[in-house]
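Journal club side-thread
Mid-discussion, someone asked how the predicted structure for our own chain would compare to the paper's figures. Pasting it here so we can look after the session.
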Amino acid sequence: MRRFVISLLIFPLLGGGVVQAQERPDVLFISVDDLNDWVGVLGGHPQARTPNMDALADRGILFTNAHSPAALCNPARTSVMLGLQPSTTGIYGNYPSWMEIEHLAELPNLPRLLRENGYETYGAGKLFHGHTFSPSGYLGYNDPSAWDAYYPSVTRQIPDEIRPHDVPANGNPLTPYFDWSAVVADDRAMADGQVAAWAEERIGAAGDKPRFVAAGIYRPHLPWYVPQRYLDMYPLEDIVLPEVPPDDLDDVPLIGQQFQEGTSMAPMELHQWVVDEGRWKEGVQAYLASITFADAMVGRLLDALERTERVEDTIIVLWSDHGWHLGEKHRWRKQTLWEETTRVPLIIVAPGVTTPGTRSARAVSLVDIYPTLAELTGTAAPDNLDGVSLKPLLEDPNMAWDRSALSTNEFGNHAVRSERYRYIRYYNGNEELYDHERDPGEWANLATNPAYDEIKVGLAKWMPVSEAEDALFLR
């Protein structure tokens, strides 16, 4: 079905030129929570089974060097939706909501921008940060004005996530949240299954206006509760563990080790429990199973789109807010400045722009999604965005690209990822530098080697000159 918007405004065509009557594509926007590079086409783990995401990558472009602006839900998702770095928003932690900060709440977030420019917008699940489900409905940092409809809402609730009777089911003594278990449930009974079902309805609904349908899939976020059949896909005895040198942290500065040890949910103690109790394979199995469950939800959304006449006129964007450690750097959890938590899947299918099956190794950031979608939909973007449109790379994945990706972990701590290097600088001036061409595991810190001083200077130019005050203190 072809849709046209008649306007007195002049919109850019996807391929260049201008017209007054222009087709505007639909957008299917899929977020997968806490998904690192353990996706088949990214090769992060040799056993990862993600046939639907792999097939999606074959339909468009896969960015193999995409990074999150922050390895924590709230700052990352705020950055994606506003197109701004944490050092611009001042959102460095999971509190507060960006909606509580007046000058941020006034900014046009991505779905609100599209809604104010002729799109119907529908959202489901976890898109902005927040606990996805509760007895009172959606508890998130959401903007009600951005959506024509949202699921779940306080008027249309779904049950709490199915979970075991005894929590933590894995028996860890530290926290009930760091947990995994099989549950007796059909996919459709899971919270993600119900989010997918609602989004499927919106994808297949009749209508002539262009639409933005966004679905936030919660798995593989903790706790890793999935139907048994997904665990059965990964026999415990066959699980491949990440390679973790015992001395990996010896050349990491003290401040880096303190971040590794001291952020939320006692990650160092969790790792010690996993190792001492021989539960490492169980944890990896549960994470892989949760990824495959999330991939099944992605497949449902893509199948729903395939059943429509809109499929050839729909841009698809799939992304994850950040990655996850599963023992690397002697850590479980997120919220570091290393590769495991900043590298994420980013797949874009843009009919008439992307070439099926292409890959780009250029360093890109999730803050680039906002300006990219604005350009692809013919929507004027705000002039304050920190990201840039990736449309040139969609057209030519191997073109020269003089940009690096910035990631932030709390105020004053940043990592810059170029095509070859990762440079980390902490608030006290301590540094780390890794050469991914020779050291993809980031096991050898080169920051104190004077031979790399020029490399560090070149990367440092991508770090913020000034940083917004932590919004936690502005409420």
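Post-session note: The first helix runs from residue 51 to 59.
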